[in-house]
Structures are given as structure tokens and as C-alpha cells.
Amino acid sequence: MGNTKLSWTVKLSIIGLLLLLINFFVIGGGHGYFELLFITFPYPCLLLNIFDEINLFGIFLFLIQYPIYGYFLDKNCEKIKSVTLSIIITHLIFSIIAYQNMPISFK
């Protein structure tokens, strides 16, 4: 077998789908805990402040958030540390904003 190295886009796509599956079980059909969802997927959760429900655009954001992170890492492989740090900081900032602005119906 040859040396097959997965790109960051593929790796983070798999991780994103696994996180989505874990969140699905933690939420428990709407009767569980939403905090993990707001921390792992802050961008689609910010839309909940506007629409108060998860719509098709939100589902699209759930599916592409982590592949976009991987794409940024693949395209900037010579500056991988600074890109990773900027992704982490941006994700943490938006996670805090999404968590603090969680709609009442999700608390």
C-alpha cells in the first residue's frame, strides 16, 4: 500500500459529522442539553436568534463548517500554526457569543 495521507478537509469533514452525530444524541430529540451544540457549531446556532428554529440554511452550515476549516488549513499549509490559531480563536469567540445569546426555548 502507498502512503495515503488524508487532507485536512477530509479529516475535519469526518470529525464534523461525528460531532453532529454526538450532538444529535446529546440533544435527545429536543429534550436534552443544547449547550454542546452551541459550543461545537456556533455559526448555525447564531441563526437560532433570528429564526428560533433550525432551517435548511442552518443544516447547510452544520454540514460545511468543519470542511471549511479544513479547506483553510489545506490552502495555507505553509502558515498552518497561525491559521489554526486564528480558526480556534474565531471559533471560541463565536461559541461564546452563540452560547450567551441562546434563545429561551433552548435553555
Explain this structure.
- This protein has 107 residues and is an all-alpha fold.
- It has one domain (8-106).
- Helix content is 71%, strand content 0%.
- It has helices at residues 8-27, 35-40, 42-46, 48-51, 56-75, 80-100.
- Helix 1 runs antiparallel to helix 5 (56-75) and helix 5 (56-75) packs antiparallel against helix 6.
- The protein is globular.
- The model has no long low-confidence stretch (mean pLDDT 87).
Features:
6 helices; mainly alpha
Task: State the gist of this model.
With 107 residues, this protein is mainly α. The protein is 71% helix and 0% strand.
Output the number of helix runs.
6
Domains (count): 1
Q: What's the main sheet like?
A: none
| Oligomerization status of the protein chains | single chain
Principal-axes geometry comes out as: globular
User: Segments where pLDDT lies below 50 for 5+ residues?
Assistant: none
Radius of gyration computed on alpha carbons:
15 Å
Based on DSSP secondary structure assignment, what is the total number of beta strands?
0
H/E series = HHHHHH
Strand content: under 5%
Percentage of helical residues? Answer: over 70%
Query: Mean pLDDT, as a whole number?
Result: 87
The end-to-end span amounts to 50 Å
| Class per helix and strand makeup | mainly alpha
